[in-house]
């Protein structure tokens, strides 16, 4: 009975430490068990504590396309004299677990939080040097916002 409950509690929240499982058994099911017993039960049930597998950011198909594009640039002899590289990155200000319990042969997959607090950083660089860096919150949902960001970060490259 206790072993089944430990399995159910671990299945419901695979990030819970042994002390929290013990508390859940005591508060919800009125069962007293030592942390050592709970660790042994988890081990017998096949639970292990380890890293969470994250979702890939760049798909393999896109990696191949990027390499092909880079090779094409090298072959063309492009010096990038007339190119401005602009990029935006997002810093997510929310913690989510990178370690969780999982059973042998089954990884613990965790999607990122749906609406975490985010800060966006946008900047540009060219052969002439670096542009300004802009840090902002919210979403880039409007073409005007994108144009104004591009103008602000690239205006240093315009020759009068």
Layout of secondary structure:
Elements: H1 2-12, H2 18-29, H3 35-45, E1 47-51, H4 60-76, E2 84-92, E3 99-103, E4 118-126, E5 129-136, H5 143-154
Antiparallel strand pairs: 1-3, 2-4, 4-5
Helix pairs in contact: 1-3, 2-3
Overall description:
- This protein has helices spanning 2-12, 18-29, 35-45, 60-76, 143-154; strands spanning 47-51, 84-92, 99-103, 118-126, 129-136.
- With 160 residues, the chain is α+β, with helices and mostly antiparallel strands.
- It folds into 2 domains: 2-45; 60-157, no CATH class.
- Strand 4 and strand 5 form a beta hairpin.
- Helix 1 (2-12) packs across helix 3 and helix 2 packs across helix 3 (35-45).
- The radius of gyration is 25 Å and the shape is elongated.
- The model has no long low-confidence stretch (mean pLDDT 81).
Structurally, the number of domains stands at 2
Give the end-to-end Cα distance, rounded to a whole number of Å: 79 Å
Instruction: Give the amount of beta strand, in percent.
Output: 15-25%
Shape, principal axes of CA atoms: elongated
Lateral strand order in the biggest sheet: 2-4-5
Give the class from helix and strand content and strand pairing.
alpha+beta
Over the alpha carbons, how many angstroms does the gyration radius reach? 25 Å
What's the helical proportion of residues?
Answer: 25-40%
Number of continuous helical runs: 5
Could you describe the largest sheet, including whether it forms a barrel? 3 strands, antiparallel
How are helices and strands ordered from N to C? HHHEHEEEEH
Mean pLDDT: 81
- Flag low-confidence runs: none
Q: How many strands?
A: 5
